[in-house]
Design brief:
The structure holds two protein chains of two kinds. Chain A is an alpha/beta fold. Chain A is about 35% helix and about 25% strand. Chain A has a domain of about 70 residues. Chain B folds into two domains: about 160 residues, no CATH class; about 70 residues, no CATH class. In chain B, helix 1 packs parallel to helix 3. Chain B is globular, with a radius of gyration of 19 Å. Classes of the chains: A alpha/beta, B mainly alpha.
């Protein structure tokens, strides 16, 4: 049975219909990416799935005992609230010291436990958010544009970590992103959202779909070219580099 | 949300007026009005109202209506100053029992809900994802605040309760790395302020509630100066 299932979801925010007729499921262990232009309701959909936003129509069915690890787009910690990294990792449940050490090691931040959250760099902050979500031993990891503000190597490293996590823990991953070229190669399934589900399927199929092309375009300026950008090849400089135009 | 306490405390004077008007206990009146105000504030927050404006409107209207209400009470010789500024020297044994009982209740409530409360305060979305209902935790905080206001009204008075909620916590902030540490240090600073203020007011013959707040403010200033100096020394060394 699916981990989470949305049927005919509709959400109105302040009189504006943000989502309508959204139906989707997440199966155990799969990586699903939601892509869509700004204002297409991606974040609203995630917030509805975790229960932070009430749908005006439709319903959400969660597998019994479903554990969700949520990594928000950004997290503002009020400066009046002192919060060390170690203390943050102990929310919402206290963890044994060994689990905390393992989480910090896994995030590549072994020495930062006593550091204040406010003093972390953007990349470190995102890795701590991910580490906290993983401590929940989630069945479903939900990431909302988790690499916003990271440079390209930083976000590529972040997505490699997600891939590792899926292999180690076997959790399903649902993420929202606009960095299509990085994300699509790591996804089992892509949902293209623009208020409703425009199209969905395997990344290469969605990339060819006319609904997707209508939203993101094609050619050297489009995401398709980015998606075909091969990582790991050597950059010899005698030929023109069409993909650079798209970056 | 620092003014949350302010609005709740100001509403308590309206509670005092109503309690005297209907001849019920002042504690009950203050508690009920504090609860009503705290609930109204936490319901309105997050609904797109300009919070500081709303709090300003509600706090001071409640205070004004309370003062006008008290003036209608003929036949009751009421020392209004005692409720506005507190009168720690008039506290009876029964009052002490209410204060200790209220403090124990608030402490138990906080210890019970602490992890969930902290998660919900940090981010309602993170709380939702972990199966915590942030609105319930907000209600817990609201209830605790109303209790504190109702039991503290005799000692510090409605005008200065908010000061004792905010100043010791603000003074504890630079000394703290975790919320727990901040809670403990703030409590110690508050206790030191109360004892110091009591002593000073006895010696200087000044009103006790305001003197307690003055001591807390001096501690705050001292801590702030200390933390600024430490930073300068660290940057130059």
């Amino acid at each position: 049975m699916p981990l989470i299932e949305a049927q005919g979801l509709g959400v109105r925010l302040g009189g504006v219909e943000v989502l309508h007729d959204v139906s989707m499921t997440i199966e155990p262990g799969e990586i699903v990416t939601i892509v869509g232009p700004n204002g297409s309701g991606k974040s609203t959909l995630l917030r509805t799935l975790i229960g932070a936003q009430q749908p005006t129509r439709g319903r959400i069915t969660r597998a019994p005992g479903l554990r969700i690890g949520y990594v928000p787009q950004r997290l503002h910690i009020d400066p009046t609230l002192p919060m060390s990294v170690a203390r943050f990792l102990n929310l919402p449940r206290r963890r044994p010291a060994a689990a905390l050490r393992a989480a910090l090691d896994g995030a590549g931040l072994p020495d930062l436990g006593q550091r204040q959250m406010a003093d972390l760099s953007g990349g470190q902050f995102q890795r701590v958010l991910l580490a906290r979500a993983l401590l929940e031993q989630p069945d479903l990891l939900i990431l909302d544009e988790a690499t916003q503000g990271l440079d390209q190597p930083g976000s590529a490293a972040f997505y490699r970590r997600i891939e590792e996590v899926r292999q180690e823990m076997g959790c399903a991953v649902l993420m929202v992103s606009h960095e299509l070229h990085v994300v699509m190669s790591a996804s089992d399934r892509v949902i293209c959202l623009n208020g409703h589900v425009c199209c969905e399927g395997r990344p290469e199929i969605v990339a060819q779909a006319k609904e997707y092309r209508a939203l993101f375009g094609t050619g050297t300026h489009g995401a398709l070219a980015l998606y075909r950008h091969e990582h790991g090849h050597s950059h010899d400089h005698d030929h023109p580099q069409p993909h650079e135009a798209a970056e | 949300m620092a003014y949350f306490g302010d609005a709740t405390a100001h509403a308590a004077i309206l509670g005092v007026a109503l309690a005297l008007g209907f001849s019920v206990s002042v504690f009950a009146g203050a508690l009920v009005m504090s609860l009503v105000m705290a609930t109204a504030v936490s319901t309105l927050s997050g609904r797109g109202f300009a919070m500081d404006t709303m709090l300003g409107v509600m706090a001071h209207s409640a205070l004004a209506f309370g003062l006008v209400g008290v003036s209608f009470l003929s036949g009751v010789r009421l020392d209004l100053m005692a409720y506005l500024f507190g009168d720690i020297l008039a506290v009876s044994r029964a009052d002490l029992a209410v204060i200790w009982g209220g403090a124990a209740l608030v402490l138990a409530l906080l210890l019970w809900r602490w992890q969930a409360l902290l998660t919900a305060t940090l981010s309602p979305d993170l709380a939702h994802a972990s199966g915590i209902d942030p609105r319930r935790e907000q209600m817990v905080l609201t209830l605790a605040l109303a209790l504190v206001v109702a039991v503290a009204i005799k000692v510090v008075g409605v005008l200065l309760i908010a000061a004792l909620l905010i100043v010791p916590a603000a003074a504890a902030r630079p000394l703290s790395t975790t919320p727990e540490r901040m809670a403990v240090i703030a409590t110690l600073i508050a206790a030191a302020s109360a004892l110091g203020g009591l002593g000073a007011s006895f010696r200087l013959d000044t009103p006790t509630g305001p003197t307690i707040v003055c001591v807390a403010a001096l501690i705050f200033a001292g801590v702030m100066a200390g933390s600024v100096l430490t930073k300068i020394v660290r940057n130059n060394g």
